[in-house]
């Protein structure tokens, strides 16, 4: 390999994109390729994923992956590492809304205990995100320059309740709170930034036609707005722990909620440092941590 080709190869960043076979994930993967990155496109949909990478060329590889399976995710991360020897970004985008009904409206009048809920939305949105975060931390530590970027696709439904899919709203809200909570430590200890983007309604296969028909076209969020929010996080390392609402063509950086009862609420939230070492094996090192 010539020197310039080698330099070019070294410079080319690597992303893992989950839920890459369609909708927002497909747009994210395609955009990264156009930016010169190498992209591991992961999805449960094998045919659509294979068709995408055929379109994207040799810098894209498809991995059939169910993100709810930790071992499967670990295998993909390992294969990406073996192939490209770096991991710059995890775009944790896979997810879906409720597949069961926690309201059990059809169980009225029955005396037996209702079946255990499958919680597939919780698993696909939140558990799998935490699996990805842990694996990303592990591999990003091994980068020549340790560190990287993790971004999740959350949703505006995580802030403003959508009664139709309460499990999904809770799962995505959990992503938000995890992002705000873990971002300062990840940045300080491992040079990893962590953010979430919260799209409004984006015209993808996940949205029923009737819902799209009921939405004023001027209120739809362009997929490009979501891609640009990801771009902001990837290009501005000072953006960390942020929830970025993507609405129509706008990015709104959401503020944290106000303290309900001033100093009393603040103390209740900031006196947990003594447990940090017990739980994680070393001090947090956060400036201003209260003992
Ligand atoms: N479309 C919207 O209006 C909207 C709004 C806010 C947030 N979102 C979020 O954006 C993300 C992408 O959704 P989309 O609208 O592009 O829908 P989509 O259905 O087009 O794409 C989701 C992709 O995730 C994949 N996927 C689902 N479960 C998976 C699993 N267990 N493992 C691996 N892949 C899996 C699907 O196969 C699909 O390709 C989701 O997290 C969704 O919750 C969508």
TrEMBL record:
InterPro entries per record: NAD(P)-bd_dom_sf, SDR_fam
UniProt KW Oxidoreductase keyword: yes
Single GO term (MF): oxidoreductase activity
Record-linked Pfam families: adh_short
Entry GO CC: cytoplasm
Keyword Lyase set for record: no
Keyword terms of this UniProt record: Oxidoreductase
Family: Belongs to the short-chain dehydrogenases/reductases (SDR) family.
Entry protein name: 15-hydroxyprostaglandin dehydrogenase
Organism (species): Clonostachys solani
